[in-house]
Design goal:
This protein has 529 residues and is mainly alpha-helical. It is built from 19 helices and no strands.
């Protein structure tokens, strides 16, 4: 599959996945509200993701894809290696899941020690329902990354849509049975907890089954194989060890941030609102960086495996520049529409304004995060996981220091302070990462990146101003764009449309060369293409 077709397939799947994810968040707020009980569920449901990231995500992305690409060149197409890999991965996932479920009370206190006793009790019960997701998350990633490594890009991206649909149905059932809106933590019954917890976990289980349905397209037959000697575990362990530490320090920083959020629960934006702001923030990154960067990562791994090192700087430059064109626009549009889009996930205009400040704090880091996606994965293509650990360690330290510095802030803006600190830490991280990558690859054509970014920013300033002016003309924070969830979404789309016309109009006047590949990619979405 070509990079263009793969990017479109991943982009379309990610777009629909994220849109249904936004709908899931809307229904969740309608069902649970955005206060103490919702914060308790948010913490419990984030635990499996956090643990899965520590033991799985970084290792799979950094280590498994390049290893599978290399193993696929064997006479059996990598079948023996992949069977051993899946057997080992399943054993590890089962052990980690069992340990996590047994440690549920400890984990809840670790991530939300500032909660009230009733919040901690509710979050712990939710955690028992949610933590089994770790096994299914891990299996989903193992299958999905194997499909990606063999250039079968669609299922891994499209399967989360099913998860979102199941969750939406579950939260809708909760509203039908028990009514919507905020409920005190001590008002929850076992039936209410069961509907919410079972729906969240069932979605992950079904998501995993969906990707398994596409396994036959790999042409591989999986058989349990416990003969792990000789599969290169020493090399995998060396690579994975640094990645494990990298993700671990990131999660340690997340624990500190979560506890700072918890100090504002009930008084200002906390886990739920900050989580939803993060969901909006990550939307363009997921659609743009993942759809463009994932096929490039597979190609980078192939180039390195074939020792075609001269191709790497070209791929890195192309990926960064095309990604940045769309990421810069997304930053300007989301900043201009921050209040209406935040209203979609909140229950009042005042909450929307508070949430918008949190979103703006995150948006400062969107552009450097988009660049980091390509830079970091280039290290992985070279089987270098030690260097990413080092610059991620610096990022985590900066994020923790700035999160703690946000504690004296008023509860209304404390979460925004944490979000801004996270963005600053990402900016520091991408600068260090780029400098270190040049030592491995040589010239990265950074000057071309900066010239492109300069063009994009020249277009983004009037685009953002036009979008914000539209928001003000429509009544601002007290206008119709914040009067309801539906009108908030309509207002955000209208503001983004105005920003898009100005942004791309300026780039056309500037004759930005990056418009050509983006236009080619977008035309593939048209019917018949």
């Amino acid at each position: 599959m070509s990079l263009g077709r793969a990017s479109v397939l991943i982009g379309a799947g990610t777009l629909i996945s994220r849109v249904t994810g936004l709908l899931r968040a809307i229904v969740l707020v309608a069902a649970l509200g955005a206060a103490a009980s919702a914060d308790a569920f948010s913490v419990a449901n984030s635990l499996p993701t956090s643990i899965y990231m520590i033991v799985s995500t970084g290792i799979l992305t950094a280590v498994i894809v390049p290893q599978i690409v290399t193993a696929s060149r064997a006479d059996d197409g990598g079948q023996r290696f992949i069977s051993k890999l899946f057997t080992l991965g399943t054993v590890i996932l089962l052990a980690v899941t069992a340990a996590a479920v047994a440690s549920a009370p400890l984990l809840v206190r670790l991530y939300a020690g500032e909660f009230s006793d009733t919040q901690i009790e509710l979050a712990t019960v939710f955690a028992y329902w949610c933590l089994p997701q770790i096994f299914f998350y891990g299996l989903y990633a193992l299958v999905g990354e194997t499909l990606n490594a063999r250039r079968i890009f669609g299922p891994f991206t499209w399967a989360p849509i099913v998860n979102n649909i199941v969750s939406i149905a579950g939260f809708g059932l909760f509203i039908a049975l028990f009514g919507g809106g905020a409920k005190a933590p001590d008002a929850w019954t076992s039936g209410m907890i069961t509907v919410v917890g079972a729906s969240a976990t069932a979605g992950i289980v079904i998501q995993t089954l969906v990707v398994l349905l596409f396994w036959q397209r790999t042409g591989l037959r999986l058989t349990p194989d416990f003969r792990w000697r000789g599969m290169g575990l020493g090399n995998i362990a060396r690579l994975a060890g640094w990645t494990f530490l990298m993700v671990l320090v990131g999660q340690l920083a997340a624990i500190v941030q979560s506890n700072v959020f918890a100090t504002a629960s009930g008084e200002g934006p906390a886990q739920t609102i900050a989580g939803n702001a993060g969901l909006i923030f990550i939307l363009p990154y997921s659609i743009i960086a993942l759809s463009i960067g994932t096929p490039y990562f597979t190609q980078l791994s192939e180039h390195v495996a074939d020792r075609r090192f001269a191709e790497v700087p070209k791929d890195v430059s192309a990926s960064v520049r095309v990604t940045s064109l769309l990421i810069v626009f997304s930053t300007a549009a989301l900043a201009a529409a921050s209040v209406p889009i935040s209203r979609v996930f909140t229950q009042s205009q005042d909450q929307a304004v508070d949430a918008a400040v949190v979103l703006l704090g995150y948006l400062v880091g969107l552009i450097p995060l988009g660049i980091l996606f390509t830079v970091q994965r280039t290290f992985y293509a070279y089987n270098d996981t030690r260097t990413p650990f080092l610059f991620t360690l610096v990022q985590a330290v900066v994020a923790v220091v700035l999160a703690l510095a946000a504690l004296p802030l008023p509860p209304e803006i404390r979460a925004a302070g944490v979000a801004l600190g996270q963005s600053i830490s990402i900016l520091v991280q991408v600068v260090i990462a780029t400098v270190l990558l040049r030592r491995i690859v040589g010239s990265l054509r950074v000057r071309m990146w900066m010239l492109s970014l300069a063009r994009f920013l020249v277009a983004a300033v009037p685009a953002g101003a036009a979008g914000w002016g539209t928001f003000v003309l429509l009544g601002g924070a007290e206008g119709w764009t914040t009067s309801s969830i539906v009108l908030g979404a309509v207002g955000a789309m209208l503001i983004a449309l105005v920003a898009a016309v100005v942004y791309f109009g300026v780039l056309i006047v500037l004759r930005a060369p990056e418009l050509a590949p983006v236009g080619t990619m977008l035309r593939r979405f048209l019917p018949g293409r």
